[in-house]
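User: Predict Putative ABC transporter, ATP-binding protein's structure from this.
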Amino acid sequence: MANIVNLDRVSKGYAAGQLLSDVSLGLDDSDRIGVVGLNGAGKSTLLKLLTKAIEPDTGRVTHRRDLRVAALPQTLDLPPGATVRDVVIGTAWLPKGFGAEHEWAGDAGVRTVLGGLGMPDLGLDALVEPMSGGERRRVALAALLIRESDLLILDEPTNHLDISGINWLAAHLLRRRGALVVVTHDRWFLDAVATTTWEVGEGSVRAYEGGYAAWTLARAERARVEAATEARRQNLLRKEIAWLRRGPPARTSKPRFRIDAANALIADVPPVRDQVSLQRLATARLGKQVYELDDVSVSLGAKSLLDGVTWNIGPGDRIGLVGANGAGKSTLLRVLTGALPPDGGRVQRGQTVRPAFLSQELRELPLHLRVLEAVEEVARRVTLGDRELSAAQFAEVFGFSGARLWTPVGDLSGGEKRRLQLMRLLAAEPNVLLMDEPTNDLDIDTLAALEDLLDTWPGTVIVASHDRYLIERVCDTVVAMYGDGKVRDLPGGIDEYLATLGTPIPEPGGRATTPQRPAPAEAGDGLSAGELRAAKKELARLERLMSKLDQREVGLHEQLATHATDYEKVAALDAELRAVRDERSATEEAWLELAERVPEA
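Assistant:
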């Protein structure tokens, strides 16, 4: 490995505030970095600093000599009159230092890349200007993928890609040589391509080994440690306050520094960390019938989007709807909402159905109102779990508080508008949720909160999404649309969908295989049936032991707080705590080693 980029004590801020402060990090030639963080935390700014598109306020960014950097920004400026050939093979849009590709290296490779990105029939002589934003972005991405670069930087590359395209892109990037830095809110994609995760937030960049799963575990551990620290702080705080309240004689007879320390402790209580905390919304109970489609057909010109669809949807069904762009998913949802009457057939809805439709568009948002007014337009009071909240309190649950409540809706960022759109939808307290690409423009923390809500939603949920992580997390069944007007059940879920398309699934180490229907689990690592049973039994024992050690550690923390003034007792407890932690670490390592040899149940 060789170092190619360095950031040395870099800071960058704008009028709205400081984004990065005194950040130092390095990038090697084989690194695959996933960048995560809240909207507005500074992820795109970090990418621009890495490419030297902007200069830091303080500090220094250095590149290896002759470093070839290819970057896909969030916004594109493609020249008018350019064709696909001009952009992909020519030099109509390219990062500095890149030339045209030779024709002999072009057509086959370009068509393979365009096909993988979901545009197999796009001609090289097609004009780019009349294309949709998503198509233009995919053409620009293709221009970067067919060229070799030392560092490839991608800002939200999965936007406008369907599940098949996301899988293809992950497999392609794993086969590619060179360093990769990618900002993405797609958790599955992050896990597939990243070996290191950078978390941008609060002016800093924290590095974690592994992809989304490893980062999530690390955050959970960090939160656990902080919670234990805060519990000790609160116990000590209560003791100090009790001491201070013993009366004036006690205050004057004790050392002054203890009073000062208690006041400092009170002032140092940390703020609430998570601003977005969604809870289960109480909904009305559904009857036996929700939706019944009988021989429904919808056409757009000569194209049949729905062709004789017969489909029953019951109470509590949780359905993921997958398919390529243009396959008819949005049309099907609009038929269910009643916004689009079918050309033929019958759609019957249950009498108690109160649907809410989250569309891809933001047109229904009242841009002339302020955030609080936009919520109150739907409901002045909202029932959330077992609480009744005012519109202002409800908005705060979704991350809008203080001055942000009075921000005009038209001035919100894309992610904030999406959050407001979701908030207005839930404020109406529906019992059926119809959601068209609900994860667009949402950061990972908001996505996790949304999934927490959907995971326990007591009504019916139908989600059309290219976000594989969301579908597999909150949906019990998956149905697919292949563009032929039919709706097909997929008992094998998304793996079955990809298998029908022959899409490669990325594997660790840069390999890609064509997915197949899952086979029954077999004994791994050459274990016999008896050895496999023994290994699974040992895994269960180690899991129980880790749980006991966790409980023991919590108990020791509580004892440390209780005996904070007994130095001998604290020393003994601290030694025991270190021993428990060492034993847990050894137990966890043994579990991980054994788990690698035992196939999943």
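Confidence is low (pLDDT under 50) at residues 249-254, 268-285, 508-525.
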